[in-house]
Amino acid sequence: MPLLRMREASFRLAGWSVAPVTLDVSSGELAARTFASGREAAVVALMAAGIAKASSGCVLIGDYDPRVQSVACKRLAGFVPHEPVSLDERDFGAYVAYRAALWNLDARVAFACATELRATLGDMHEAFAFPLVGALIASPELIVLDRPVPAYAERILRVAEGRAVFSTHTSVAAARAFRRSDALRATQA
Amino acid sequence: MTFRALTALVAARLYEQRRLVVYACAAAFVAGLLQPREAAGPIMFCSFLAILMALAQSPGSYPHLDRCEQSAPLFGRELARAKALVPCIAAALATLAYAAAAFVGGAPDALRTLTMALAAVIVTTLIALSATLRVGSSRALYVLLAALAGAIAYALAVVAHSLLAELGFCTLASFFALRQYGEALARYDPI
Fold first, then answer.
1. Which pLDDT belongs to residue A186?
2. Which of A6, A76, A168, B34 lies 20 to 30 Å from A69 when distance is taken between CA atoms?
3. Of B9, B63, B190, which has the smallest distance from its Cβ to A52's Cβ?
4. Dihedrals phi, psi of A10, to nearest 5 degrees
5. Which chain B residues are within 8 Å of A42, Cβ to Cβ?
6. What pLDDT band is residue A180 in, cutting at 50, 70 and 90?
7. Contact criterion met (CB < 8 Å) for B8 and A102
8. How would you classify the pairing of strands A164-169 and A30-34?
9. Mean pLDDT throughout A150-174?
């Protein structure tokens, strides 16, 4: 059964709209989609994470409808925004504690998990690493990435191992980077 | 929503807005030193600060906090209550700074004035919060409504000499304003 199901899901706002999207993402699967604009890619990512509600069509995250059970959807899906966070390494502990409190996680376990993830991500810039680590400490089954940096594709997919990953992009090359990493992982395995 | 999540959310927002809070408290303190004897001063001035504090919670001001809060498994009403606490605390601190300055200046009935001002400031903040989720004329309307609530609170407390009526009005209006903000936040699409 797909973890994320989008059927003709579109979003309309004051004369502007996102073209209907239909896709399925199953557990452990990687899916990357390319969109015409950054705004469109952002809106689809927000809909896939249960943050924005589709104006028409249907979005189901693990059988939950974000329009009715948004809290259940947000427990299943972790969202990583496109915008880098304006924090530095000194803020790591406070940031993890903040995320752990919002998701009601054990602070010590969350910090240990976050430290391990941060080490795995290596020299990935903290502005991009923190939101990813923050999303992963809650152990979501689905990770939604809004226009992730293609250069970090391999590292992102390494830490998201075993989880379903849906990413939105504005260029075919960026989307391919994530698929290529998948192929690379398959070869290594 | 757990108490831990509530305190984390409030603390994170207050920390991000610490400079704004300090400036507001300093401005209130100076205003309190200059005009400690009039009830209009604390109510009107602190209500103005409260509106500014509420508008500072507008989406986009602190994007990484907005995204964390929006993606956290929290209900809109829970999030509204936590977010409403932030400008209420900041505005209450500014009011206390005003009252402290007025007390130092030897104002009579400092405690009564503080009670009047605090009640007005809370209702003004909660009404102005609804403006943060709107744009254009409806945003302006909520700001005007917040200012009107402050004026009504003043009229009841000072012109009609009824602190009880002011407290009653502020409690009732605050309740409906918080409900309205919660409903708006639950329906809000962050796009």
1. 47
2. A168
3. B190
4. -135, 165
5. 191
6. low
7. yes
8. parallel
9. 90
- The hierarchical CATH code for the domain A4-13+20-188 is 3.40.50.300
pLDDT of B179 strictly over 60 = yes
Alpha-carbon distance values, B96 to A65, B24, B41, B127 (Å)? 46, 11, 13, 21
Q: What are the CA-CA distances from residue B53 to residues A1, A25, A175, B190 (Å)?
A: 47, 42, 42, 20
Query: Would you tell me which residues 105-164 of chain A have a C-beta closer than 8 angstroms to some C-beta of chain B?
Result: 131, 134-135
In this complex, the residue of A13, A51, A98 whose CB is nearest that of residue B70 is A51
Q: Does B18 touch chain A (CB under 8 A)?
A: no
Chain B residue numbers with beta carbons less than 8 Å from the beta carbon of A45 are none
C-alpha to C-alpha distance for B92 and B81, rounded to whole angstroms: 16
User: Residue A181: its pLDDT value, please?
Assistant: 56
Dihedral sign of CA atoms B150, B156, B162, B168 in order: negative
Q: Which of B9, B64, B73 sits opposite A74 (nearest CB)?
A: B73
User: Residue ranges of the domains in chain A?
Assistant: 4-13+20-188
Within 8 A of B12 by CB-CB distance, chain A residues are 98
Q: For chain A, give the mean pLDDT.
A: 90
Q: Is the pLDDT of residue B79 over 50?
A: yes
d(CA A58, CA A50): 11
Nearest to B73 among A52, A71, A97 (CB): A71
In the predicted structure, residue B180 carries a pLDDT above the cut 80: yes
Chain B contact present for A19, CB below 8 A? no
Under 8 Å between Cβ of B32 and B42: yes
Partners of residue A144 on adjacent β-strands: A79, A166
Asked if A104 lies within 8 A of B5 by C-beta distance, the reply is: yes
Chain A to chain B Cβ contacts (< 8 Å): 65
Residue A189 predicted with pLDDT over 50: no
**What amino acid is encoded at A70 in this protein?**
S
Q: Is B39 a residue whose pLDDT tops 50? A: yes
| Per-residue pLDDT at B165 exceeds 90 | yes
